[in-house]
Write a structure and sequence with these properties.
mainly alpha, three-stranded antiparallel β-sheet, 62% helix, extended
């Protein structure tokens, strides 16, 4: 999709849209449920001995890395919405805690790939089960709110 395809054309003018009190209420409910999950996630990460950012990084590596090669630091930065140099620092901290290992890229040796260690796999598996249970608990609330939006 190009940027141009998302812009309104001169021929079609958007009609002014109004919002009702119920619209504001539904959006507030949605944000509340999201915030409940985020608060739960942050607490669970801390209880596991991780920062929320470390947990997100481990999940991104596990979720997006090709098993045989790992995930490039640049890809991790993109997934987490951070700058490359911030991702390098994050990987440094994860490696210092024994949670990731670095390896050179096979095609480009300048490219650094990151993979989880067995320690990180165990931590992440436990956290992911807990998160899945919480999402299943919140699912009816989320479905109801989304249906009303």
């Amino acid at each position: 999709m190009t940027a141009r395809s998302t812009m309104p054309t001169r021929r079609t003018r958007a009609k002014p849209r109004t919002l009702s009190d119920a619209d504001y209420r539904r959006l507030a409910e949605f944000r509340s449920v999201l915030r409940q999950f985020l608060a739960f996630s942050e607490t669970a990460a801390h209880e596991a001995g991780l920062t929320p950012q470390h947990h997100q990084a481990l999940l991104a590596i596990r979720g997006y890395a090709e098993p045989s090669r790992g995930l490039a630091v640049g890809e991790l930065a993109t997934l987490l919405g951070i700058r490359h140099h911030s991702a390098v620092g994050l990987v440094d901290r994860l490696a210092a805690n024994g949670l990731v290992r670095r390896q050179e890229g096979t095609a480009d040796r300048r490219r650094v790939l990151v993979a989880l260690t067995p320690k990180a796999d165990a931590l992440l598996a436990s956290l992911t089960l807990t998160h899945r249970d919480e999402l299943r608990r919140l699912a009816p609330l989320l479905r109801g709110v989304l249906r009303r939006l």
